[in-house]
Amino acid sequence: MEFYTHTPHFSVPSASRARCIIERIKEAFRSAVSASFAFSFALVGTLLGAITGSLVGQETESGFLRGAVEGAFSGAVFSIEVYESSLILLRLDESGIECLLYLIEVIGGLLSGRLVREQISLAMLNVIQSQMGAADSIFEEEVQNFLDISGWKGLPEDSVEKIPTVKIDTNNITDASGESASCLVCLQDFQLEEMVRSLPQCHHMFHLPCIDEWLLKHGSCPHCRRNL
């Protein structure tokens, strides 16, 4: 009688699977760090925005309390935008001097109250465009007058027309994170073969009607606030 011995086989994870696990751990760690930085930026922005908004509110008809609330909201939102824009600047490999000048411009704008007012204006513009069908001409005119509270002159119409346009194709229809690229004013996704306007310095893209209307009132990018 013959006896056969069966050697047990243990499945050993392959090197590629181990690398995949390590990459997932690294990605989770990076996401956690990024979320922590974003929370810190939002917290600081909320505090600075509340202080700035309250000071601006005292000098206007909005009042101290309303100015503080609007400033806190705008400061939090804008701080997150600054953080995301900073990541984009790093990926674009721009010089340290350009990044420093950009941050100085951001801080100066926040302290002067301009960015708080512009952020509120952009939020109002989004509400108007999302409910344009229900708004009558009188209401639209009143809100457009409200959008002029910032007091900062926009670009001439001929200068706006000179800003380059690009066609949406398979190369630019998604952003760096792989999500569908969208207009940051109306929040609608871009469609293939659609013509959009790409701002020269930051390369943020917008629908032509959306960005043209904004630039005629504000001479800066509505997302990263870079002056044009």
Automatic annotation (TrEMBL):
Query: What InterPro entries does UniProt report for this protein, alphabetically?
Result: Znf_RING, Znf_RING/FYVE/PHD
Could you tell me which SMART domains the record lists for this protein?
A: RING
Source organism phylogeny? Eukaryota, Viridiplantae, Streptophyta, Embryophyta, Tracheophyta
Membrane found in the keyword field: yes
Q: What is this protein called?
A: RING-type domain-containing protein
Is Zinc included in the keywords of this UniProt record?
yes
Superkingdom field: Eukaryota
Where in the numbering of this chain does the RING-type domain appear?
183-225
| One Pfam family per UniProt | zf-RING_2
The primary location reported for this protein is membrane
Query: Which GO molecular function terms does the record list?
Result: zinc ion binding
Q: What organism does the UniProt record list as the source?
A: Trapa incisa
Q: Which Gene3D superfamilies match?
A: Zinc/RING finger domain, C3HC4 (zinc finger)
Indicate the transmembrane segments per the record: 37-56
Signal peptide span: none
Query: Where does this polypeptide localize?
Result: Membrane
The alphabetical list of record keywords is: Membrane, Metal-binding, Transmembrane, Transmembrane helix, Zinc, Zinc-finger
Q: Which GO terms describe its cellular component?
A: membrane
